[in-house]
Amino acid sequence: MRSIALSRRTMLRGAGGFAVALPFLEIMQPRKARAAVVPKYFVYLFNTNGYVHSTWLPKKTGPRESDFSLAGTTLQPIADAGLQGDVVILNGVENKALRASPGAGHPKGTGIALTCRPLSEGNFVGGGGQAAGYASGISMDQILRRTIDTGPGRNSLEIGVVARRRDAAGQVAYTDTGTPLPPQGDPRLVFMRLFANQVSDPASLARYKATKTSVLDFAQADCARVKSMLGAADREKFDKYCQQLIETETAVKSLLPTQCTKPDLGTVADPNRIENAPATYNLQVQLMVLAMKCDLVRVSTLMFGFGGGAGSGSGAGMAYPWLGFSQGHHGMSHSSPLLPASATPLSAINKWWTQALFVPLVQRLKTETGVDGKPLLDNTLVMWTNELGNADLHRADHLPYVLAGKLGGRLATGRFIDLLSPPSTNSLMLSVANAYGAALTTFGDPRFCPGPLAGVFS
Amino acid sequence: MYLRTATTILTLAAACTGEIGGATETGNTPDSPNMPMPMPMGGTGGSLPPDPILRPPPASCASRQAGPSPARRLTNREYNNTVKDLLGDMSQPAHVFEDGGLAVGFDNNAYLMLEITPNLGGSYRDAAERLALDVATNRLSTIVPCNPASGETACVRMFIQTFGKRAFRRSLAPAEIDGLVNVFTVGKTQGGSFTDGIKLVVEAILISPSFLYRLEFGTGPAEGGLVKLTSYEVATRLSYLTTGSTPDPTLLAAADGGQLGTSAQVLEQAKRLMALPAAQKLVVDFHNQWLKVEDVDSVEKADPDYAFFKANHRTFMRRETETFTQKTFFEGDGKLETLLTSASSYVNKTLAGYYGVTVGVPATDATFARVALDGDQRSGILTQATFLTAQSGDHPSTFRGKFVREQLLCSQMPSPNADLLAMTPLQKRTQTSRQWDQTIAETQACAGCHQVMNYTGFLFEHYDGVGRWRDMDTSSPDNVARPVDASGKIVGSEDIDGPLHGVKPLAQKLLASKQVESCVSKQWLRYMIGREETDKDACTLDRLTDQFRASGRDTRLFLLEYTQTPTFLYRSVP
């Protein structure tokens, strides 16, 4: 097992020497003060290698949207956990950009999931030999970040669980064409990013700011010197790091004392190993929800696993050994998944996602309260989907969308919406953006965006 | 121009310089941490690469030219090596950093790596904080060369000058020294101790672009678009080229003393560095990338015929190939012929079963030993389980053929579009994999590429999906065993077209091909320069190819010869 010498003690000391949150006066709680406008949150949970539609589809039990049953489906754990009233299930959404995109099925499905545009041309070669580049355009989570994430020092959170492909199948978030935001797969580094600079005692915070500013000032001076000597071709890309240093310093200087309680990570099982994926997921979600609770993060994307095979030679990749499958998920998804013999194990994986990924996430958001004292879920939209629908054929119609959370009252939950004339993901995303207050009129490739999807958000 | 010197092995002792952290075990690549490579076993004992042969310059060298010299960010591997040598940190922190992308087959492409994403930048800053704290707390005396009790101000400056030079791979400007003295003062004031000050200086250095990037600006006037490198820049290129890490004190001292100004001096240092254990890791890394060894890590075998294939067999296979390439280069003759035709290899108990070897086999899987394989069946890396397993899957002929065409002949196999992929022959398999791939190759829309790949791949039909020899093919869905047909042909090559049967004749063809000769040179060049070659690298590439040919295709000469070429010795001014 790979071991990384990152003891928790080291991290906490690295954070400024204080592991204990000290009590302080109400007047020193600026995050609460800022919360006069109740913040909204967005969480995107992403699975790969498609799903079995027939065993996922809820059964209608009456004429109303609230008349549906999850019994016997792979979504049944939602009902078992008493969360049926907290979700909205959408059947029929298609990411139409897939058909217009270059590249192989899995990079396409992942790269277009939140951008809703064909991938750019490029040299990443997929499992079937088709080449493409990264996604094109900005992803919806980043639009939401710009819309709702206005405070200093806050950023979106991209986290993954064994999601380390290098091509367009490696991430869903993009600030722009060709500028991916790959997920951080190591909870220890997520911890450091989120909580290392969370200091509660004003004297320690002052020391933290002074030292970090000094370090960042030196690096910025080095950056400026190097930049002036670089050729134009290198300078622009190089400058991204210089900009990061400036932004980080701005963020450090504007840090305020926090009363965030740092989580105890305990022993972290090697996050690069597939068999540790369930444990890694739990840690990542724990960190993410805690960051939301402290209002450090408002927009998160969370990738579980990765699609396709990993080698050029044959199909491998993500696997579910803890469910007793010795075979890789990607290979299973291509073994005639419509036949009962394969549908059963594939459905077992789908059901495990519901039970072990989606339900605990929603439950945690329902239990934990945000800065306004209400359950986080009230002000959050959780969107859970997959890179593909039918993975054997690499299709992106009938994508499995399950939403949860009330989004500050914009989403009425406890509904199953069977979309008879299938809308594009573009329309769904546009309606999401509008629900968060972004004044967009189109999203992604305009060819696939006739307008927002009506009837989901109010 | 350098002279052909008598076989000089006079710098071996330099392997024991006062390098912080010292050397680790040989050839243990980051991705197989549980499988340290064995130190020498059998063989003829360590041998250094021979000197390059003095040759008349190729015509392309009439005017001095070199391709672009972009800023290079440290690869994650280089980052790990660098913090190990600089700080004595063995934790390989970059293991969890974002990967760069692949370009022209290698993971060190300067252009792809130029930008630092927000996540990577965050990882750099987090790692800097942790590494600085760790070295200041646990190994302060290894980086601070003086006692602060006898004059703190002077000691701080001395530390900044010596450590800063190693970290930035050049002397620091006075303003930079002052800047770091300020950082020290803030650290000491805020933290309370000398150690706090040193810690903050280390942190500041580790997040600075001068550390994270290998930056070159050259010196003196440009001639024909080229400038000479400073001696520190030469030292840095040389060090990362041969050891994948920051210059060691000996090399820095040579740069200090202006001892890297001639190509002969560069060659002497290159030979010294090639004797260090780190060079062995680098050579193995090149072969791993060139031969796509990592592909085997993700292979799964769903077919019940391969139920015996376990996840750790992938590690065994990989270790076999890594040991083979390392020993061929450092203990053998380094010849392409050996790589492609050797009938011996390194196996443990399990792999011996794959090859049907019974003599000299280790009793367990923990030990690997050099054994003689069946000379009628085996031919170097072309028949090793790593390649045959990694390049297999549902279309073994296609993947194995593609490997030969791309890695050994440097052909570009374009990607099929969605329309082609949707065609019936690709989707439906009714017969053996050979028959299936034959059908695809005969389908008009696919023929252009698949005849090139599949017909080459058919030569490997005697090897099953995990590299075992077979005479009967059971890959058909009807489970009927049919005799293997390993006839195929090379089409679309520059100089080796024609019908063939089996792998051994293929190896002989490849060894007779100028296209292969030029391709292997090109693969080494791409890895060494970390970018795709351009027209302006023609002289450099011709010199490598020429040296390769003149030496009887000795792959050990690439690294040394490259240090003598304009692409290495000069910087092209953008």
Your description of this structure?
The complex is a heterodimer of chains A (458) and B (574). The termini of chain A are far apart. In chain A, the strands form four sheets. Chain A has a seven-stranded mixed beta sheet with strand order 7-10-1-11-12-4-13, with helices on both faces. In chain A, strands 2-3 form a two-stranded antiparallel sheet. A two-stranded antiparallel sheet of chain A has the order 5-6. Chain A has 458 residues and is an alpha/beta fold. Chain A is globular. In chain A, helix 7 packs parallel to helix 10 (277-293), helix 8 (202-229) packs antiparallel against helix 9 and helix 10 (277-293) runs parallel beside helix 12. Chain A is built from 13 helices and 13 strands. Chain B has 574 residues and is mainly α. Helix content of chain B is 47%, strand content 6%. In chain B, helix 20 (433-442) packs across helix 21. Chain B is globular and about 85 Å long. Chain B starts with 71 loop residues before the first strand and ends with a strand. The relative contact order of chain B is 0.13. At the A-B interface, helix 1, strand 5, strand 9, helix 7 and helix 8 of A face helix 3, helix 6, helix 7 and helix 8 of B.
Fill in the keyword field for this structure.
heterodimer; A: 458 residues; alpha/beta; two-stranded antiparallel sheet; 13 strands; 34% helix; disordered N terminus; B: 574 residues; mainly alpha; 3-stranded antiparallel beta sheet; 26 helices; 11 strands; 47% helix
Largest beta-sheet details of chain A: 7 strands, mixed
**Helical content of chain B (DSSP H or I, runs of 4+):** 40-55%
Distance between the termini of chain B: 26 Å
Describe the strand arrangement of the main beta sheet of chain B, using strand numbers. Answer: 3-4-11
- Counting DSSP H or I runs of 4 or more residues, the number of helices of chain B is 26
- Rg result of chain B: 26 Å
SSE topology string of chain A: HHEHEEHEHEEHEEEHHHHEHHEEEH
Sheet-strand content of chain B, in percent, reads: 5-15%
Distance between the termini of chain A: 50 Å
**Helix/sheet category of chain B:** mainly alpha
Principal-axis shape of chain A: globular
- Report strand % of chain A: 5-15%
Q: Could you tell me the mean pLDDT of chain A?
A: 84
